[in-house]
Input
Amino acid sequence: MSNSVEPGNTVSTFIVNDIVTASLCLTEKGVSVGPITDVGHGVQLSTFKDIDGNLLGLRQNPQS
Output
């Protein structure tokens, strides 16, 4: 399974307060979640696929 995002594609993303907890909750339900990546400025992203194979994302914004 590739969780990479190609240029020109759209990924619907859920903004969460705690990306680690959100990732663990999905994993506990049998969802394969990609690694959490720090993309700079305090933003962390991760991707996963739904049961139809659509790529979705998790995003944690910087803490204020």
The chain has a mean pLDDT of 92. The CA atoms of residues 33 and 48 lie 5 Å apart. Strands lie at 12-15, 37-40, 43-49, 55-60. The chain is about 15% helix and 35% strand.
